[in-house]
Specification:
Elements lengths: L1 H15 L18 E14 L2 E12 L4 E12 L13 E7 L6 E8 L2 H4 L2
Parallel strand pairs: 3-5
Antiparallel strand pairs: 1-2, 1-4, 2-3, 4-5
The structure holds zinc ion (ZN).
């Protein structure tokens, strides 16, 4: 019974894979990782094994001085193996929140933003 069930599951997952096999469970496209929550865009500052770090500026109001200050926020995002080659350090990318995958990774790589949006 259990063998048959696993076989059917494997066949289903094979059909869903349109491109090369991606066995990554935590891949938002091929795995069963759900993306929900907040979306951020920023520049890739470092690239690691299955992980990228992005950084972006944001304005924070400081009550004492009644003024805004620029601060930088760094976020770590999951980068699945199938998209590893499409991202390089310095790219402007968009990431979306997912369930916590590790202590620091709560986001997953969503898409690379083209140069046209960079001017904005
Ligand atoms: Zn994948």
């Amino acid at each position: 019974m259990t063998k048959k069930e696993t076989k059917t599951i494997k066949e289903k997952s094979k059909k869903e894979l349109t491109s090369e096999a991606c066995k990554d469970k935590d891949c938002p496209v091929h795995g069963n990782l759900k993306l929900r929550g907040r979306t951020f865009k920023g520049f890739v500052v470092s690239k690691h094994d299955k992980r990228i770090a992005i950084e972006f500026e944001r304005m924070i109001y400081i009550k004492k001085y009644e003024r805004y200050a620029r601060t930088k926020t760094k976020l770590h995002a999951r980068l699945p193996r199938c998209m590893e080659n499409s991202v390089a350090v310095g790219d402007l990318v968009r990431i979306k929140e997912c369930r916590p995958l590790s202590k620091i990774i709560h986001f997953a790589f969503l898409e690379k933003i083209n140069g046209s949006e960079e001017k904005k």
